[in-house]
Structures are given as structure tokens and as C-alpha cells.
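Our preliminary data section would be incomplete without showing what the modeling component actually yields. Below, a chain of 81 amino acids is followed by its predicted structure, encoded as C-alpha cells that our downstream tools consume directly.
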Amino acid sequence: MRLVYSERFLNALRDAPTQVQRAFLKQSQFLLQDIRHPSLRAKKYNEALGLWQARVNRDWRFYSTIEGNEYRMQAITAHPK
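Predicted structure:
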């Protein structure tokens, strides 16, 4: 598997706090190893769109789709409480 980033995702990641950027890099390595890694807490977010949600840290989430052997990173946002 490999990661493919949308322009929207890259812009949001660039604007995110440094600690969130670092946490995403760590979590993305877990994603590449196994989407079921416990710290990701990955789940299907929108069945119709094939959109998955996974955890960056307690306060941030990232969203992706799976196409073939690619995780297509769609968005990274603060998690509403």
C-alpha cells in the first residue's frame, strides 16, 4: 500500500499545528503496516463514499479512501467534541 495526498489534505496538514503534523507522520506509518492498528481506531465513516476515518491524536482525525493499493488521503481536521 502507499499514500496519495489530495491538495486539500496537504493544505490542511500544512496549516495544522506542528505536533499534529508529527503525530500524523507516526500514524501514517501504522496505517501502512495495518489499518487495524489499535492507535488508529480506523472505521468506515461513510459507506456510500467509501470514506474511512482514523485517529491522528485525541483531538484530530484524518479521512481517506482505499483504491486498489492506495490510501487516498482526503482530509485532516480537528475532531469536534
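The first strand starts at residue 2 and ends at 5. The mean pLDDT is 97. Preliminary results of this kind motivate Aim 1 of the renewal.
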